[in-house]
Amino acid sequence: MTDVLALRGIAEELVAAGVTDVVVCPGSRSTPLALAARAHPGLRVRVVLDERSAGYFALGLARASRRPVVVVVTSGTAVANLLPAVVEASLARVPLVLLTADRPPELRDRGAPQTIDQVGIFGQHVRWFAEVPLLDGATEMRRHVRSVVGRAVATARGGPAGPVHLNIPFREPLVPAGALGPLAEADLEGVGPRPFTDVVAGRPGLASVDLADLASRLASVERGLIVAGPQDDPGLPAALARLAAAPGYPIAADPLSGVRCGPHDRSHVLSHADHLVRPGAWRDAHMPELVIRFGATPTSKPILTLLGDATPTQIVVDGDGGWSDPAIIPTTFIHADAAVTACALADALGAGGGSSAGVGATAWAAAWTDADRTADRALLDWLAKVEARGEPFEGLPFAVLGGVLPDGALLWAGNSMPVRDLDDWLPGTGRAVRPLSNRGANGIDGVVSTALGAAAAEVGPVVLVVGDVSFLHDLNALVAARLHGLSATIVLIDNDGGGIFSFLPQATTDAPEVGLPGHYEELFGTPHGIDVGPVVTALGGEYEAVSPAGLRAALAETVARPGVRVFSFRTDRARNVELHREAAAAVADALSSS
Ligand SMILES: Cc1ncc(C[n+]2csc(CCOP(=O)(O)OP(=O)(O)O)c2C)c(N)n1
Ligand SMILES: [Mg+2]
């Protein structure tokens, strides 16, 4: 018989540790956990039918709310279905707490139904795994399970944040034999409403000698570039703005860095670094000698190529001890908190006064910010001409959304072309728009579920721009939207297949050298011809196919409306490649004549 006080203790500890949201997938073995979560008024339970979708839904909820989210699933393949979201959460450092129900020890490995080996099933992809013993009613067990839950949430939260897995066995009967809900004062094991186990973690900065050394390395280099990659610390953008101003370094701002949009000082922020650093005359004249990187690997491939080609001194600041260096160049890793380090460096450089960088640094930064403005004008002029022809272009949604999204809006971009178009077309703005994408593992799976999970956090209106293959991959995400009355605007870029592959060599050669001419479309382009409109409406959403002008009008007036609306924007894969090349050429021309 499962100990009711231990179950209540699990829910109590989650709440005490700051958890507010639990995503529950239906099942029998998980009954004690589902009921315990549902019975605690501090926890909001949302049911998601498909565990794969549920994992991503929880991921989106955790990203948007910046709080750990719990997922409860039954035994068997239900657990295995969480793996894709676990992988993404691990690489993107998103806090998830997975509570998986299991058979008791005597029913494992002996042909009991719906029983698989769940012990350590997520391997290296979780920050911590613990097998919880049967909740047998011993006082020590009650304390143990509360302590394990407290440690699980703390581990998920940081150092780095990520998924943790608790496997919890239950013996029948599965329906608890007593009332659930918050623990009474007498049952709190003497710790009151505080967590049984919590962790106070610091944000370590550099020792002053190391800081001085780093500051002098920056002060001695005029041609420095700050690369702000994907990251979620809302305090970092202002810290980077301060750092940039001290040595006069421009900031190549990935759209997922939080640096491109927001009320902080953006005078050194570049929105078009992806274009500026494409191989060409402008890049050759502006090779950086030092690059200081914050956040994860940037979305822009030209920035990675630049790192490999210029082989600047690379400094990577990562408070979670990561080793991000996909360009494989000589690197100093600074394992100290990013915002703390950026501010301390700004102070150290400011205090140093008259660094050798001096006036030259200002000219260097101005060259980049001027070029960024030139690129911006060139892109907008080019886009105006495309729009005047009434021709659809896949970057259009981001150019429009940059102008209409309010403070606090979440702008999700699917993987494949949408996140690249986000990089090229989202303008910098003083409004606190929050662009997001699953860039941990770059999967095209679970994109819609993640965005709808973010919508469930109710922190601001959600707009998702997603490709058609990705949308088809995750159609049943819409079930959760219907169950929970969620609101989101989805721009479906429908190019009838995988448009990104048209940019790759296999698209032009069609693999004649391996004797398979004509198989590009079958293997990569994958046209499907599916009209998702009836599926969307069957699942309770609104659906509308829009022209470029229609898309502009729709985005301007529907972003904050309730319900799920899908605007299908039809484009052509082959033409899309030409248009992207035209846009890049327009920037290159403008840069060479400026
Ligand atoms: C889970 C997963 N499967 C396959 C891929 C490989 N992949 C990358 S892009 C892509 C096509 C995506 O098509 P779509 O969503 O329509 O976007 P588009 O390329 O048209 O912009 C595929 C299959 C992946 N990244 N993730
Ligand atoms: Mg597509």
Describe what you observe in this structure.
- The protein has 23 helices and 18 strands.
- 53% of the residues are buried.
- About 2% of the residues have low confidence.
- The site of magnesium ion has 7 residues, from α17.
Number of helices: 23
Strand content: 5-15%
Distance between the termini: 77 Å
Main beta sheet: 6 strands, parallel
Question: How confident is the prediction overall: mean pLDDT?
Answer: 95
How many extended strands? Answer: 18
Helicity range: 40-55%
Q: Ions, cofactors, ligands: which are bound?
A: thiamine diphosphate, magnesium ion
Rg over C-alpha atoms, rounded to the nearest angstrom:
26 Å
Silhouette: globular
Q: Structural class per helix/strand content?
A: alpha/beta
Q: Indicate the low-confidence ranges by residue numbers.
A: 352-360
Strand arrangement within the widest β-sheet reads: 2-1-3-4-6-5
List the helices and strands and how they pair.
Blueprint: H1 4-16, E1 21-24, H2 31-39, E2 44-47, H3 51-65, E3 69-73, H4 77-80, H5 83-92, E4 96-102, E5 128-131, H6 139-157, E6 163-169, H7 208-219, E7 224-228, H8 236-245, E8 251-253, E9 269-270, H9 273-276, H10 281-285, E10 290-294, H11 301-310, E11 313-317, E12 331-334, H12 338-352, H13 358-388, H14 396-404, E13 410-413, H15 417-425, E14 434-436, H16 447-456, E15 462-467, H17 468-473, H18 477-484, E16 488-494, H19 505-509, H20 520-525, H21 533-538, E17 542-546, H22 548-558, E18 564-570, H23 573-593
Parallel strand pairs: 1-2, 1-3, 3-4, 4-6, 5-6, 7-8, 7-10, 8-9, 10-11, 11-12, 13-14, 13-15, 15-16, 16-18, 17-18
Helix pairs in contact: 1-2, 1-6, 3-5, 3-16, 7-12, 8-12, 13-23, 14-22, 16-18
The protein binds thiamine diphosphate (TPP) and magnesium ion (MG).
